[in-house]
Design a protein that fits this description.
With 226 residues, this protein is an alpha+beta fold. 28% of the residues lie in helices and 33% in strands. The protein has helices at residues 46-55, 57-60, 71-74, 80-92, 139-153, 169-178, 213-219, and strands at residues 7-10, 24-31, 34-39, 97-103, 106-117, 123-130, 159-164, 181-192, 195-205. A nine-stranded mixed beta sheet has the order 1-2-3-4-5-6-7-9-8, sandwiched between helices. Strand 2 (24-31) and strand 3 form a beta hairpin. Helix 5 crosses helix 6 (169-178).
């Protein structure tokens, strides 16, 4: 029997329960750097989001899609309401499950389950970024584990995919440690950091983690319940 993820469950189901799993608060779990949890993005997150994104440009920009808009402009406080509104709209339509990652209640990144397809496929992708001062503290592993368990248990999905550049060693370690399997190489898959970049494709299905990823982290000693 699969364990439920460490969360407080959906706060309010979407209209008619058509889009299970949103909104929700997940966690917390304890890692050496603090209490890691996931929650829906808020309009008031703009200041903290902009501060982290602007400060960590060198850490983040090389892994993100190419844009004609300068990094400073697209990560200003004034850019957040548009992003927040887009994420909120996709969540309300059942197309995504967007979360802010917090460490001790402070914004430390984002994790998003996107391009949700239901019916016979019940699949989505998962993507994430973590603040530069949190990359080696187990934060990303907990965030992905919480989101994956929630997607499989509460949101009713069957498969999640993640694509990562082969050079992105920290993200590769997160996925491999959690049990995502490598399925192949996508040649010139995304326009990232000014060029078409190869990406490795990783995936996980409910059959690959019957006990849940949170249970794996706790069992391996990489995280604890509060």
């Amino acid at each position: 029997m699969r364990l439920r993820p460490v969360d407080s469950g959906p706060e309010e189901p979407a209209a008619g329960g058509r889009h299970p799993g949103w909104p929700a608060r997940l966690g917390p779990l304890l890692v050496p750097v603090g209490r890691v949890a996931l929650r829906p993005p808020r309009l008031l997150d703009g200041g903290a989001w902009s501060h982290v994104r602007t400060r960590d440009r060198a850490h983040l920009e090389r892994w993100e899609p190419t844009s004609t808009v300068d990094w400073a402009d697209r990560n200003t406080v004034l850019a957040w309401p548009g992003q927040w509104g887009a994420l909120r709209g996709m969540a309300r339509r059942g197309q995504a499950l967007p979360f802010v990652i917090t460490v001790d209640d402070e914004l430390a990144g984002q994790v998003t389950i996107g391009n949700i397809v239901r019916g016979a496929l019940r699949s989505a992708w998962i993507g994430y970024w973590v603040a530069g001062d949190r990359v080696r503290g187990g934060v990303a592993s907990v965030a992905v584990a919480l989101a994956t368990d929630h997607a499989f248990n509460v949101a009713g999905l069957h498969r999640l995919e993640a694509t990562v550049r082969p050079e992105n060693a920290p993200s590769l370690r997160v996925l491999q440690k959690l049990g995502f399997r490598e399925e192949g190489l996508f040649r010139r898959y995304l326009d990232v950091d000014g060029a078409w970049r190869d990406h490795l494709c990783f995936a996980i299905t409910t059959e690959d983690a019957p006990e849940g990823l949170v249970a794996r982290l706790i069992g391996s000693g990489r995280a604890q319940r509060p």
